[in-house]
Amino acid sequence: MNIPLNIDWQQILLHLFNFAILAGGLYLILYRPVKEFMKKREEYYQNVDKEAKKHRKEAEDLVHWYHAQLEHVDEELEQKRAKAQKEMDQMREQQIEETRKQAHAILAQAKEAAQHEHDVMIQQTKKELTDMVVTAAEKITLKDQGDPYEQFLSIAEREVPDGQNK
Amino acid sequence: MKKKRTRFIIIWIIVTLALLVGSFLAPSGSGEETVQVMMRDAVLHETNQISLFGIMTVNPGLISAITVTVILLVAAACIRIFVIPKFKYVPGKFQMMLEQVVGMFDNLAKTNSPWRNGFLGAYVFAAGAFIFVGTLFELFGLQAITTEGHSVTLPAPLSDVNGAIMLGVLSYCVIVSGAIAGNGIRGIGKALKEVSLLISMSFRLFGALLSGLLVTELVYYYISLSFVLPVIVGILFTLLHALIQSYVLTMLTALFYGEMSEPTPKKKKARHEKVAKASEI
Question: Where are the domains of chain B?
Answer without folding.
Answer: 48-263
